[in-house]
Amino acid sequence: MAAVEQPAVVRARGIVKRFGPTVALDHARLAVRPGEAHALVGRNGAGKSTLVSVLTGMERPDEGEVTFSGEPAPGYGDTAAWQRRVACVYQKSMVVPELTVAENLYLNRFPGTGRIRWHALREEARALLAEYGVAVDPRARAKDLGVEQRQFVEIARALSFGARLIILDEPTAQLDAGGIERLFAKLRELRRQQVAFLFISHHLQEVYELCDTVTVFRDARHVLTAPVAELPKEALVAAMTGDDGAASGGDSRAAVRVPVTRKEATPGGEPVLRTEGLVREGEFEPLDLVVRPGEVLGLAGATASGNTAVGETLVGLRTPAGGRLSVRGRPVRPGSVPHAIDAGIGYVPEDRHDQGLVLGRSVAENATLTVTDQLGPYGTVLPSRTRAFAQRMITSLDIKTSGPSQPVSGLSGGNQQKVVIARALAREPSVLVAIRPTAGVDVRSKDALLGVVRDVAAAGSGAVIVSDELDDLRICDRVLAFFHGRVVAEFGGGWSDRQLVAAMEGMTGPGTTGPNGTAGDTGDAGGTGDARDAGDTGDRTEGRQP
Ligand SMILES: Nc1ncnc2c1ncn2[C@@H]1O[C@H](COP(=O)(O)OP(=O)(O)OP(=O)(O)O)[C@@H](O)[C@H]1O
Predict the structure, then answer these.
(1) For ligand 1, what atom is nearest to the CA of residue 417?
(2) 353 domain residue, yes or no
(3) Does residue 294 form part of some domain?
(4) Distance in Å, CA 525 to ligand 1 centroid
(5) Is 258:448 a contact under the CB 8 Å cutoff?
(6) Do 64 and 129 have their domain in common?
(7) I need a surface site. Which of 53, 77, 95, 274 has the fewest CB within 10 A?
(8) pLDDT per residue over 194-232, tens digit each?
(9) 114-115-120 Cα angle (round to 5)
(10) Per-residue CA distances from 195 to 69, 151, 201 (Å)
(11) Residue nearest atom 6 of ligand 1, based on CA coordinates
(12) Is the CB of 49 under 6 A from ligand 1?
């Protein structure tokens, strides 16, 4: 006789949620058992974030029911009651940046009544953080915390409310290898205390590493729930995409073509982008770069290695302390985004929320922001031309939207990222600079977007990809690895994951690299004992630098 099962910490059944004509959830369901690490995966727009909103009481479903440990969900608006059951750690911080950690921990629930006793509050915060093994000073301002510390504070805050279910929405998106390792160690420790997790990630290798059960959503519906160990990666991807890859020859690029003007690339022609002695004090040392037509150059590096600073300097977001930058032989005024765009530099930013999109505006308006001069005579913008242009982008980039006039705020995260890319491509740039272009993008769309970058190069432009994701870097003709503001290795084709990860972690030994991609074997340089460092991730769908 089997033991009586404990009720699920959360169970959602028959959930329907519509946004105007869009059905975001169509009789969706999910159940998470106590102490379980449960992954929720699906392509961009599958309904994952909407389910999170329903499970955390932020959105009321049109139909269906949610129960916590067998009890009906609290009433909508009873925030405190929801917080006692479930918490979500988002990519975007929920803490108040100007307040201290202690204040954030007790926001809206200061202990006692009347006057706040700051000393006692700090002590309580210290005890709380210690209880969950979080090494953060309660007096620190939240804005001074790194992403990793901030997430730990948010987890501690959730647990202190009594929640035994934590939803993590792409928690590793901004963490480096060490940060991911520490987060996972913390989550494993909390599981032993019967805390359950719902883990949302586009990095499928993380699902295999951390979770025991996986649920797949596709087109607003539940398609399967299975033990991770019994589901090979190909089957998981097939469930997400709804095909086995055979129908499309397994190549999602086939359906994705950007309206770039096709010219034959002129290999070895005049560089599309050149820097000479470009430098920013404290961020990166003087740098000479050359990108030729048809070439995709990767700038690899972990957080704060300098690669992102280089990318942002190329597009004019940061002003260099010295050096020169030119596009097709013409100098570009440094430190000016409009000049960079005019000079032919297309930019795909890392953070689409802060730098990418005007959320209240439509897909069409956002996609055409950089080409309004081409949409009508004498400075006018013809709506019909805008829509037609946007529709081409929607089709070619496979953007899931109800149409060109839908506000961008109503798109899923990954589809917003595609609009950002559409906008950068709209001007047919001489060189496309993309910073972590596939962050938040599902596994199938990722291939498609990277295919688009290759297409841009094939059409005679150049591209620079700034990333720590091995899959992004794999499509590059050449990769420069940054560490502490310096290029420490250069790779042509044929590098192994282990070699590149070792270089990004500063573990380049003598004879490790040659100037033209003659990267030698780093031997056990990457042998930190961490399987994810081992790099030769042949069995992984994705190869992000962990
Ligand atoms: N506030 C909203 N208004 C209109 N449509 C919305 C809104 N929120 C979500 N949608 C739509 O609901 C569908 C599901 O979106 P959701 O954000 O849940 O997807 P997701 O699986 O989280 O995607 P991603 O992986 O890209 O984050 C999408 O088609 C999206 O455009």
Answers:
(1) 26
(2) no
(3) yes
(4) 43
(5) no
(6) no
(7) 77
(8) 899 999 988 888 999 999 999 999 999 999 999 999 999
(9) 120
(10) 13, 16, 19
(11) 410
(12) yes
Report whether residue 412 contacts ligand 1, using a CB cutoff of 6 Å. yes
Alpha carbons 483 and 290: distance in angstroms, whole number: 19
d(CA 62, CA 206): 32
Centroid of ligand 1 to alpha carbon of 166 (angstroms): 21
Where in the sequence is the domain holding 42, given as residue range(s)? 1-86+163-250
For the whole prediction, is pTM greater than 0.90?
A: no
Nearest to 173 by CA among 199, 134, 208: 199
In contact, 252 and 451? CB cutoff 8 Å: yes
CA-based max dimension of the chain: 80
CA distances (Å), 443 to each of 145, 237, 446, 519, 536, in order?
A: 31, 8, 5, 29, 19
Residues 447 and 522 reside in one and the same domain: yes
Helices 177-192 and 147-160: crossing angle in degrees, nearest 10, is 10
Q: Residue 172 corresponds to which amino acid?
A: T
Kindly state whether residues 431 and 338 are assigned to the same domain.
yes
Residue 351 domain-assigned (yes or no): no
Kindly state if the Cβ of 46 falls inside 6 Å of ligand 1. yes
ipTM above 0.90, yes or no: yes
407 lines ligand 1 (CB under 6 A): no
Decide which of 380, 398, 426 is a domain's last residue: 426
